[in-house]
Amino acid sequence: MQIHVVQPNETVFTIAQRYNVSVEEVVNANDLAPNSRLVTGQALVIPVVGSFYTVRSGDSLYKIATNNGLTVQELARVNNISPETQLQVGQRIYLPAPRKVPKETLGYVQPTAPQYNNAVISDFRNNARNLTYVAPFGFEAKRDGTLKAPPLNPILDIAKDNNVVSMLVVNNIENGNFSPDLASIIFNNPTVQNKLINNIFDIARRQGFRDIHFDFENIYPKDRQPYNRFLENVRSRLPEGYILSTTLVPKTSANQTGQTYTAHDYAAHGRIADYVVIMTYDWGWQGGPPMAVSPIGPVRQVLEYAITEIPASKIMMGQNLYGFDWTLPFKQGGPPAKAVSAKGAVELAARQGVNIQYDNRSQAPFFKYRTPNGVNHEVWFEDARSIKAKFDLLRELKLRGIAYWKLGLPFPQNWLLLTDNFRITKL
Questions:
Q1: Which CATH code for domain 104-320+386-424?
Q2: 265-318 pLDDT, tens per residue?
Q3: Which residues does residue 377 pair with via DSSP β-bridges, in sequence order?
Q4: Which residue in 167, 182, 216, 280 has the most C-beta neighbors within 10 A?
Q5: Is 217 a catalytic residue?
Q6: C-beta of residue 131 within 8 angstroms of C-beta of residue 106
Q7: Spelled out in words, what is the top-level CATH class assigned to the domain 2-95?
Q8: Domain residue extents for the chain
């Protein structure tokens, strides 16, 4: 699969000609509207076998081969050149399609307002074949050990029809926020805890959930060990054939402290759970200054620490399917940034008549624009290049898979590149 960055004055027709594919193939692969105007800097995926790489200063056959999981001999052979060839800047090198390795995938769904729920259901239905798990978010634990369920129809039926494992996500959200007091009651009150676990298993059996997942956040530091003991209690009672998983906040060391971090014990979760989802996103967030949502450097730092505490085969890398549009100048406590999808961001750039830029350090696209009334904006989002960088990291660190937050936001290039790089595991 080729990633092509649109240059000035290029059209879908000229790009299709360059790669010897049809206009329809380019349009369909990128879910483009008929006669849509391309944006300079926009990343497109071209449905061809393998891809082409343009040699840059400092490149060598060895460097290119290593970066793409090939040997020098393999790369030389497919390009009909000698392994000792000295490459020239600007030279095109053909890269064969990557060897597909098995990975698990997880898609969170957050059914809320009907109009959004329609988009969620449609996205899940269209991409169920590419998912191992689906996670309706979420079942809210109550102080008496009961659970408040999210809307589930027709999510569970679609999952069953497509051999997707349904995940029962339990959280400590109370009045719209993660509650440390609620979590503390669950962890430290044996009566409430056992009632909650009984209710979870009862719902799982009746509704067909096979993955029991805990997303407890904003936990008091003093509840680190009680949380671990709670998970051990669940593990000891987990029925045969069921999976136990958890969500972890992104940490870079065991010594990271504070209410966000202390109670999330990477080593303990790695020992107790079948797998964990690490939320490697939201460096750029609605209430913070403009920046990439999941910059590759910090994502790598978190995951490289994680694999020192947790087997790589138990780690799911979290991945955002959204970006944000910030109003400038940024003011702490001001109006939050507006969420945008990958597709919506490109359409916004086209409407505003601005080019898309790419930050090589964070491996993320962005652009700036000014409204007719003089208000400046800055947008960061995901595209084919940024998601491919995450896939390369996933492959390099030999992680279990990737967990998407959240379905319902159009990003057609993601799914094409996902299946081009990996063989999706179905349980």
A1: 3.20.20.80
A2: 999 999 999 999 999 999 999 999 999 999 999 999 999 999 999 999 999 999
A3: 327, 369
A4: 280
A5: yes
A6: yes
A7: alpha beta
A8: 2-95, 104-320+386-424
